Amino acid sequence: MQHLLAVLACATAAAASTQIIAGGTATTTINSDTGKMSVQTAGSSSAAVSAMLASVVELDSDGQELSSGTSTQHKVSFSASGSGAFSLGSITADASFGVSAQASTSTSTGTLITGVPSLSVSNQILVYQAEGTAMPEGSGGLSVQVSNGTAEMRTSISGWPWCLSSGGDLLNNCVLGTLRKAGAFLELEYQFETRMEAMLSQSSDLMVAYDIGGGAELVLSKRAKVAGSYVALAEGYPKVTASSATSLTMKVRIPKGSATGTVDIMYDPITRASGAGSLSSRTIVSGDTSVEINSAGKAALTAVSGARTAISARLSGISEVNSNGQALTDGNGNSHSLGISGSASGYFGLGVIRVDASLSVQAKLVLASANFLNRASIDQDLIVFTEAGTVKPEGESGLSLSVRGGTLKTSTKIANWPWCGSGSNSALTCSTASRRSLVGSSGRALSASAGAFLDLTYQFDTRAMATMTSSDASSVAFNLGGEANAVFSKRAKIGSTWTAVADGYPKLDADATTASSAVVIVRIPKPSNSESEIMYDPAVDENGSANSAAGSAVAAVAALLVVAATALSARTA
Known about the structure:
Blueprint (H helix, E strand, L loop, with lengths): L7 E5 L5 E6 L2 E6 L5 E5 L7 E11 L15 E3 L8 E3 L3 E3 L6 E8 L11 E9 L3 E3 L9 E3 L4 E8 L15 E3 L2 E3 L3 E9 L5 E5 L3 E7 L2 E6 L1 E4 L2 E4 L6 E5 L3 E9 L9 E3 L2 E3 L8 E6 L2 E6 L4 E5 L7 E11 L6 E3 L6 E3 L9 E2 L3 E3 L6 E10 L3 E10 L3 E3 L9 E3 L4 E8 L14 E3 H4 L16 E9 L5 E5 L3 E5 L5 E5 L1 E4 L2 E4 L6 E2 L8 E9 L7 E4 L2 E3 L4 E2 L4 E2 L7 E4 L9
Parallel strand pairs: 44-52
Antiparallel strand pairs: 1-2, 2-3, 3-4, 4-5, 5-6, 5-16, 7-9, 8-9, 9-10, 10-13, 11-12, 13-24, 13-25, 14-15, 16-23, 17-18, 18-19, 19-25, 20-21, 20-24, 22-23, 26-27, 27-28, 28-29, 29-31, 29-40, 30-39, 32-34, 33-34, 34-35, 35-38, 36-37, 38-48, 38-49, 40-47, 41-42, 42-43, 43-49, 44-45, 46-47, ...
């Protein structure tokens, strides 16, 4: 399980109430007033991510909070604006989980529950100093791949005054209504500061992970240590209880079970702040193909063996055009065309690498997110398949694509596009660039030009002059030189119906294609519901083989469009 990850390597004291541990490209700051751990990546404009234990509360078997006969609530809370809640220990070397780390333990101060001076809550922060596999639960438990800077927060609770069904003293006697109640769970609430609204990235029997933006990831185990043994959390936990673009609240419900005595409990979430590699790129290797995805949205595909010349693929532009194919500009002077440079570092915020099997073939995926005109959100899921198989992104009756380990598929999703000639309140007035030049001295009003299509432009670094190799009713294929090929679908999904893209598309732009570069344009009709989401997803293979579905080499670039009926809300990375 990945515990709160951070990046820090040497330890220095910042102020009396904080500690800093450095590792890799980030620093983790531990605050003694609140117990919060904050992780900031060096040289990044992204906000820090943080984790904080907010409360611990005892519940009965029905999930109701308990208080003892002295009206003492069995709950401990820590405030984000608190003061002196923890004392900081010294920073020491630690390799107890199999990987070298720097560790510091913050221990609660004062009496947390009246009459229970022995109760203690502590957070051990571990910042790993090398790559490796950490086993926080020991052999047979969850294994976590960590890197230099991965940080883990390990919460331990000892001396809890459990409510008992019988016996004990006044603190153990808890009544709800007329019934004496026994404690069944401790519920821990964690609060996290995020870079975007948390999105589930992975789930298994042992853990759950969330992409929290800008390369940061939160991983929580589905087990906790109770009285020395690991046990499963209550069903449905960890649970998200609140989420926004900048924060996430999660609860972890830990069963007491049949353990007796004070029943010490330990739980440790992980926050990884740098993901796989630097914030400006992600690399996925499968078979003999390495795919490096940069923050311009460009995917470079190279042969690990060096046997083949590298190629690349990227979304290079989005342009709203009228029925004559002319680009549009609105009345505020905003061009409705977006150009994306292949060297535009930081244009997209890159998410973490996560496992994906949505197309029934195992893959790894990275999310790249950007915004346009402060309204439209542009998300790209860059999927690298890790095994061979057949994917059917259009369903059983649509295009089938043979993929292998190393095939790339890019799914571009565009939500809340500000279409010309439409809008929730009033029509957005636009005109072509040539007609706008007439406005001014004459003061003549020009008739509005409505948007009819979105042109998506894909650019490739190729091994030779690109040529069309086949075309049928469902797709068109291009060879990019040698074993590299591209297959584009001729259909789009609007609502629940697959519909043809504009006649003559996808097409190779002959004027922009050279011996080492190719441009393919896909013209997507404007949906009848202008608030709809648009999705189009090319797939790329630099070492293809025969693709029976398209009558040419494997899915090098299979482009598929989906226009969903429900609009997505804009999201920032």
